[in-house]
Amino acid sequence: MSSKVLLTGGAGYIGSHTYVELVAAGLEVVIVDNFSNARRDVLDRLEIITGAKVTCYEGDVLDAGFLDQVLAENAFDAAVHYAGKKAVGESVENPLDYFRTNCVGFSTLLAALDEADVRRVVFSSTATVYGKPDILPLPENHATRPESPYAENKLICETLLRQLKTSDDRWSYGILRYFNPAGAHPSSLIGEDPNDIPNNLMPYIARVATGDLARLRVFGDDYDTPDGTGVRDYIHVVDLAKGHIQSLRKLIDKDESHIVNLSTGTGYSVLDMLRAYEKACGKTLPYEVTGRRAGDIDGFWGDPTLASNLLGFKAVRDLDDMCQTSWNWVSRKTNSRNRP
Ligand SMILES: NC(=O)c1ccc[n+]([C@@H]2O[C@H](COP(=O)([O-])OP(=O)(O)OC[C@H]3O[C@@H](n4cnc5c(N)ncnc54)[C@H](O)[C@@H]3O)[C@@H](O)[C@H]2O)c1
Predict the structure, then answer these.
(1) Which of 111, 123, 144, 289 has a 20 to 30 Å separation from 259 between CA atoms?
(2) Residue 337: which pLDDT band, with cuts at 50, 70 and 90?
(3) Ligand 1 geometric centre to CA of 294 (Å)
(4) Where are the domains of the chain?
(5) Mutate which of 7, 39, 57, 82 to test ligand 1's pocket (most atoms within 8 Å of Cβ)?
(6) Is the dihedral of CA 207, 200, 9, 305 positive or negative?
(7) Ligand 1 test: best mutation among 17, 41, 124, 176, most atoms within 8 Å of CB?
(8) Cβ 74 vs Cβ 113: under 8 Å
């Protein structure tokens, strides 16, 4: 496959890992990022990993004129869209901001793509579009009941893609619903680097391991799970990134739209994660059990069958690999924006 792909948000956590896999698969990639949540030196690091020059346009997906210029200067076969905001709690506090970046940003991009005759899009959705599960593992045909502005934003974007396809059959889309991305690249040159106190479990545990946070707070140990703590489906970010190649292949080679989970089908509890991380970093990590958080549920994991059948996708990296690569990444001080 030798095609040219526009990668929005390509300097971010998942985007940078996807960049590496796209280049390894022989694709030509152009990044668009406004660096609102990424360091500029990610680009240097991507050059070290891939051994090739990175092309990046700095700008905002809300800026139609900027997108038109990028599209006029490049003949793309497809776009992979990551640029956006992703913190569930923040979306509750700033729904307008989230709608603008995630929904208006995406529709601005789609309009520019349409104008430029680029109608294949891989979209970074989320398993939170499902809401509380009726059954586990969660299949793609499960009802969608988003419970936050963030999840609602993603569902709106999914709907827009489906409506576009109905209006004009030249569109094709890969909607990928991610479970919980974790881990880092084996080079330790790229990884997750939250700007603030991390919202997600693994980066939080990582900050406890580096000594930047005193202890992990475990929100409830009386759930209906083997050890009483919440169970979630964690997927290695490199596996997740590789899933995008398979999705793109389906669009570019076969023109077949799809909605699939990117999950492992296996759940790990908060304490499983803590123990695995302790093994990776060689330290005992302090934690305290506090009360349940409103809205949290016992368990949440995906059904990976459709991704396997449709895309040939299978996550192969295990929890130890997620923890080890995360630890290798965070324990290098120069990798963090936040550490002295
Ligand atoms: N990380 C997760 O747990 C997770 C789970 C499900 C879905 N997703 C989705 O995947 C995508 C990527 O997530 P991530 O974890 O890599 O996040 P990230 O914040 O690391 O990456 C997003 C990138 O987009 C850029 N960006 C943000 N707003 C922009 C704008 N208006 N114009 C141009 N660039 C902009 C940021 O600078 C950053 O580099 C997001 O859309 C997120 O909602 C993430």
Answers:
(1) 111
(2) low
(3) 25
(4) 4-183+234-264+303-315
(5) 82
(6) positive
(7) 124
(8) no
| Backbone phi and psi for residue 134, each to the nearest 5 degrees, phi listed first | -85, -35
218: alpha, beta or left? (left if phi > 0; alpha if psi -120 to 50): beta
Is 179's C-beta closer than 6 angstroms to any atom of ligand 1?
Answer: no
Is residue 150 among the annotated active site residues? yes
Rounded CA separation 101/309 (Å): 33
Q: Is any ligand 1 atom within 6 A of the Cβ of residue 191? A: no
> d(Cα 261, Cα 240) in Å, to the nearest integer?
10
What is the H or E stretch that residue 167 is in?
helix 149-167
According to CATH, the superfamily of the domain at 4-183+234-264+303-315 is: NAD(P)-binding Rossmann-like Domain (3.40.50.720)
Whether 219 lines ligand 1, by a CB cut-off of 6 Å, is no
Tell me if 190 sits within 8 A of 38, measured CB to CB: no
DSSP string, 192-214: ---SSS-SSHHHHHHHHHTTSSS
Distance 37 CA to ligand 1 centre (A): 8
User: What are the pLDDT digits (tens) for 18-60?
Assistant: 999 999 999 999 999 999 999 999 999 999 999 999 999 999 9
Stated pTM of the model:
0.97
- Residue whose CA is closest, atom 9 of ligand 1? 124
CA-nearest residue for atom 42, ligand 1, is: 86
Q: Which of 19, 150, 234, 268 is catalytic?
A: 150
**Spatial distance between the Cα atoms of 214 and 287, rounded to a whole number of angstroms:** 8
Closest CA to 258 of 248, 268, 269: 248
Could you tell me if the CB of 157 is within 6 A of ligand 1? Answer: no
- Between 192 and 295, the more confident residue is 192
How many helices (H) and strands (E) the chain has is answered by 12, 14
State the pLDDT at residue 338: 58
